[in-house]
Amino acid sequence: MKPYRFLLPLALSSLVFAQGSPGDGNIPGVGEPGGPATDLPPAELAMWLRGRALFDHDFHRSQGLGANELNADSCRGCHQDPAVGGAGGLELNVSRFGRDNLGLGPFHNLPGGQGLSKLRPPYVTGREEYDPLQADVFEQRQTPSILGLGLLDAIPEAEILAHEDPDDLIVPDGIKGVARRLTVNGQPEIGRFGWKAQVPRLADFVRDAMAGELGITTPNDGRDFGMRADVDAVADPELSQTQIDEVAFFMLNLAAPQRTGSLDPQVTAGELLFEQIGCALCHLPELQGPSGPVHAYTDLLLHDVMPTAYRGMEEPGAEAGVFRTPPLWGIRTTVPYMHDGRGEDLRGAISAHFNEAASAKTAFQALAPIDQDALIAFLNDL
After folding, report:
1. Whose CB among 114, 164, 216, 320 lies 3.0–4.6 Å from 312's, allowing a Cys bridge?
2. Does the structure show a pLDDT above 90 at 14?
3. Amino acid 13: pLDDT
4. E strand residue ranges, 38-179
5. Could you give all domains of the chain from N- to C-terminal order, each with its CATH number?
6. What are residue 193's DSSP bridge partners?
7. Average pLDDT, the chain
8. Measuring CA to CA, which residue among 262, 305, 317 is closest to residue 281?
9. Nearest Cα to Cα of residue 27 among 53, 3, 8
10. DSSP element (H, E) containing 11
11. 165 burial level (CB within 10 Å; 0-12, 13-18, 19+)
């Protein structure tokens, strides 16, 4: 059987040409939120625009939307603040369910996995629900920003591993950062994307999201991310390899969030306090990439930052309460915070840190109000 190539309608193909180039008022300029990271050659800019158009496209049932269930009809539907490719608000949270035997363990996934989609199209009978006899633990997940993640995709694995301290022996400070180790196509890889670092590469992220968020099938690339087939009437795969490559290229080349560049002495004082009280032990100000330092304020490692009795989703290598350190660049535009949005503002996010992050939280709470304000001012500069 000849492989099926998903054909976009003429309206979507025309959209690419109607958008023009970055900076013309329709697409953000180079380096701006939602814009390309660098000046791209014409052919690469055209590819970036095609990827952006697919990312922004509202898919339809006739194009394979939904494998009975879905969370949105476009990538942009969740990733939109402060621009296309950004984060999502609390109303865009998705839900995960599992069974941990009322907290006594062991944790088990439900049949079909942890995810429960938010929506069922009108043409699908039934409604969104789960079996309370099976599920007894629930966790929400916040939409993360993907701006600048191309720089994190390029961070060498050795750089990530260099900051591990799984037994808290290298620097006995109560912090036990550990990399998420995955096996992909029989080979070991380090996870770096997702709340539990469950995805190693942005191209994998594209396939995973197309399946889990939109119910769109993608070609098999041997890495076991995404969905090969579903039960709708549209031939599989519903996106071609070329289109997956274009979306991935768009994401890989999205500009990283930039600091405001404030010269306010309060911001400078807050940056010093950020390091002094221990925030920078996990939110590393920089990681070394192939082209120089990447100022994302993350170590890309897993840390236990929830209360000791916290109940949530577990995965191999990432227990309940264990999450990857989220990047802080652009944090001023991505409220609310934490994996489930429990931090309504920056102070609330700091207060929601426990276990490995408890000492930094306690140190912040012990600061004089003027110093707390300075640290918050620094975070609002990122």
Report:
1. 320
2. no
3. 37
4. 94-99, 108-109, 115-116, 137-141
5. 265-379 (1.10.760.10)
6. 199
7. 90
8. 305
9. 53
10. helix 10-19
11. middle
